[in-house]
Sequence to fold (127 residues):
Amino acid sequence: QVQLAESGGGLVQAGGSLRLSCEASGNIITINVMSWYRQAPGKERELVAAHTRVGPTNYSDSVKGRFTISRDSPKNTVYLEMNSLEPEDTAVYYCAATGITTDTTDQGQVFIPGQFWGQGTQVTVSS
Fold:
């Protein structure tokens, strides 16, 4: 299993900035993608940004030019730098990781692909 610990959420005025962090821990073999999602009240969860080990980063159109995702691979940590925040950015932000973990069973060591989620951190932007 993988545990994702998010931090950095809070209350900020419009135009301000916040930096979210998410550290993955557990029996990790590799993490291919680390992402940030968000869910506003009454809305579906949406992808904000994704960072792949190989390949480009991806952003939703609503945050392009304002948010930056980065990753410290040795630390299994992903960051989301959020600038020029708007009230519409208010949501619970979730960290997600897609990769392979390992476990020991009666049959020996097994490798398990999966997607894992953090508990979420609240971001509130006041107007």
About this structure: The two ends are 40 Å apart (CA to CA). The chain has no helices and eleven strands. The chain has a mean pLDDT of 94. Residues 6 and 79 are 9 Å apart (CA to CA).
